[in-house]
Design goal:
Helices cover about 0% and strands about 55% of the residues. It is mostly beta strands.
Length: about 725
């Protein structure tokens, strides 16, 4: 099996690495004498008269390469301090326009929407995305490394948690809908030249006709984040960057229940942002607080390895790609959740810190982070964290870089200040092969007192993507003493090989079937003594219809080599042994843009020599653009032998009501039957700008376990922060 897959993937890699690149469209920005009225009415605003329309959009779905069925015109202009983007999205059936949500950063893929990516350095690797729908939401994010891979830890992709300050207004009429964006130049990053040409591409989504169309045509395997295939807009006059923002906050908190007799607390702090150059920004934070951040989702762990919980705090998410080296969710050389969050999720107060990030010139990325967290007696010492990162970009999606991560503690936990440290050193690189192939990798080692053995980690990865094929080859190695304490490791002491190949096929006429995607994946782990710890083989086919219904039919083969017994549930232990299991899996997905939608995952097979049945239904329901809800459930019935059976039930209910695109009420209720926990998070947000405004948060945990029943623990938080633009 492994040899066949390897040969198949190598053959796919050899196919078409030097495919020809098509011509890219070019347009010109308009210099405004007076700014447009920001009301969404592009057609009747004289400021837009004479602006060059960006039109002639091309389908990538459903009929790749064909002209879009609905006309789109996009205009770009500027004043001394603001970039303006206007769009007219004509629609011959305006009653069929779909709007699914009006929250900031809500998913745009299942609604009528338009998104613009801006590559202001023209490095063809990194960019900013601004999007909206007819409800006028603000949707923004950050693209890195050409959008290839998954965001974080050396991968590219899209960071939706990046936010900046800008405005958008929309209008719906008999012609379709239109929008106007006003993006201050202080919210963008660019080089020092006054007259510039930027890489630009535009995506319009039309769910009624199942269309995704682009201004600069793309092949079917790519999306908006493929910046190397973007068009360009010339004639943009940019101002010298003058940007100093001061963002103070005040917070009141009250806790009660769980044995706590009403406890109140008050805090204040600030963030600030200063543009040293148009491409280089200094952020400073003091008494950092993240009260408005949504709580983590409960997860099910049926293995002996660590679960990964993503970073959600805004300060650490901005420019997070600058500090990302490793393997996403597996070998994170720097994982910002290690700062301010202790063992078992215990919060550690952050005194403050600073971050310098951005570009020097057009091709050199730099990042420097310095943070300090407080000492918590018996839990964590006072720690100073330093992260330094530099990478140099080259043509054809290539780059090379280095990173250093350091933690220095005060020795209060281990009783030895001189040995309370941990350091990580790494180099990494990425090389584009033609238009479809990429080779990337990293090499790292750590320095920890008492760990002097195999303290290295490395990875080499090859990717190929064409219209018909996607394939990957990965090799990863992590030594038994590799110890990035300011990073994340799911496991250590292993060598891993991973192979993947997928074929895309679009039948011409098969009862509404849009695309068939058969694929096979294989990964295996062995420790340095040659012991086979894990392998996973996945054979699957995705069937997608033109009405957006999907069915996935798969078979999974597992091997687990357990060297040390571990407890999988209370009182139930998995003995040391080697286990080989199989399962069949079925996934059913309905049109996610419909007001009522469903996803159902079912798997039936074995687990550690026993039996498992897993059912995961998810039901979504919305009313217009204001109310949305999602109920999901994970149900596992597991039988590992006589007296060793148990059931897992984890439920999650999300509710959201948007009074306006800036005022919303959201609730997340979670339930874990095995640990007898009910957790509730309710957030009211009145945003003034990105991540600033008034927040009212209520958190409650009801831990009614059979060992220690307790009354619910509740927490009310009221927070207000505001942006002061000191140089405006």
């Amino acid at each position: 099996m492994k040899i066949v897959m390897l040969v198949l993937i190598l053959m796919v890699f050899a196919e078409g690495l030097n495919a020809a690149t098509q011509d890219k469209p070019v347009s010109t920005a308009k210099a405004f004498l007076s700014a447009p009225r920001l009301d969404g009415d592009v057609r009747n605003d004289p400021a837009w008269a004479g602006a060059v329309p960006m039109s002639n959009f091309t389908q990538i779905r459903p009929a790749e390469g064909r002209e879009a069925t609905q006309r789109t015109e996009v205009f770009i202009g500027f004043t001394e301090d603001t970039l303006y983007i206007g769009a007219i999205c004509y629609d011959d059936d305006p009653d069929g326009i779909v709007v699914t949500d009006s929250r900031r950063d809500a998913d745009l893929s299942d609604a009528d929407s338009i998104q613009i990516i801006i590559d202001s350095f023209q490095d063809q690797q990194n960019g900013l995305v601004f999007g909206t729908n007819p409800a006028g939401i603000e949707y923004d994010g950050q693209v890195t490394k050409g959008g290839e891979g998954s965001f974080g830890s050396g991968g590219g992709g899209f960071n939706l948690n990046w936010d900046t300050n800008w405005e958008v207004k929309t209008e719906i009429g008999s012609y379709g809908w239109s929008m106007e964006m006003a993006i201050p130049f202080t919210s963008l990053r660019y080089s020092s030249a006054r007259l510039q040409t930027w890489g630009i591409n535009i995506e319009r989504n039309i769910p009624r006709t199942n269309e995704i169309v682009y201004w600069s045509p793309l092949e079917r395997q790519y999306n908006l984040y493929r910046i190397s295939d973007a068009g360009s807009v010339q004639g943009i006059h940019v101002p010298a960057q003058r940007n100093l923002k001061f963002i103070p906050y005040v917070l009141a908190k009250r806790e009660q229940g769980g044995g706590i007799a009403g406890n109140s607390d008050y805090e204040a702090g600030f963030d600030s942002k200063y543009s040293i150059t148009p491409g280089l920004t200094l952020d400073v934070t003091y008494n950092t607080d993240f009260a408005q951040v949504e709580v983590d989702e409960l997860q099910v762990n049926l293995d002996r390895f660590s679960l990964f919980l993503p970073e959600q705090r805004p300060f650490f998410l901005e420019n997070a790609d600058q500090f990302s080296v490793g393997v996403s969710s597996a070998v994170e050389l720097f994982f910002s959740r290690r700062i301010g969050i202790g063992p078992n999720g215990v919060p550690i107060p952050i005194v403050g810190g600073a971050r310098l990030s951005g570009k020097i010139g057009d091709k050199t990325n730099v990042g420097f982070l310095q943070m300090r967290s407080e000492r918590v007696k018996g839990v964590a010492p006072e720690n100073d964290y330093t992260v330094a990162r530099v990478s140099q970009e080259f043509g054809n999606r290539s780059s090379v870089g280095a990173m250093f991560v350091n933690r220095e503690g005060d020795g209060s936990i281990i009783g030895d200040k001189h040995n309370d440290y941990n350091r990580t050193y790494a180099i990494d690189g990425r090389m584009g092969l033609g238009t479809s192939g990429t080779v990337s990798g990293f090499l790292a080692r750590t320095s920890t007192p008492g760990r002097d053995g195999k303290d290295h980690a490395l990875r080499i990865r090859g990717d190929f993507s064409s219209e018909a094929w996607i394939s990957r080859i990965h090799y990863t190695e992590v030594g038994a003493d590799f110890n990035p304490e300011v990073g994340f490791l799911s496991r250590r002491d292993y060598r891993q090989l991973e192979l993947f190949a997928m074929r895309r096929y679009r039948p011409s006429d098969m009862r509404g079937l849009y695309e068939i995607r058969p694929h096979i994946a294989y990964r295996t782990f062995r420790n340095f003594d040659g012991f086979h710890t894990t392998s996973f083989t996945h054979v699957d086919t995705h069937w997608e219809w033109e009405n957006r219904t999907e069915i996935h039919t798969g078979v999974n083969l597992f091997h687990e080599g357990v060297l040390t017994p571990f407890e999988i549930a209370d009182g139930i232990t998995v003995p040391a042994n080697s286990y080989d299991d199989q399962e069949v899996a079925l996934v059913f997905i309905t049109d996610q843009s419909a007001p009522l939608n469903l996803r159902l995952d079912v798997a039936v097979g074995g687990l550690f020599g026993g039996d498992r049945v897993e059912i995961k239904p998810t039901i979504g329901y919305r009313i217009g653009q204001t109310f949305s809800s999602e109920l999901s459930w994970i149900h596992d019935e597991i039988d590992l032998g006589p007296g060793r059976d148990f059931t897992i039930d984890v439920g999650r209910l999300r509710l959201s009501y948007s009074f306006t695109p800036k005022i919303s009420l959201q609730a997340l209720v979670q339930y874990d039957k095995l640990s007898s926990v009910v957790a509730t998070n309710v957030r009211f947000a009145w945003l003034v700008s990105a991540d600033t405004g008034l927040y009212l948060v209520y958190n409650e945990v009801d831990d009614d376990s059979r060992f220690a029943p307790a009354e619910p623990r509740g927490e009310f938080i009221l927070k207000y922060n505001h942006v002061f633009d000191l140089l405006r």
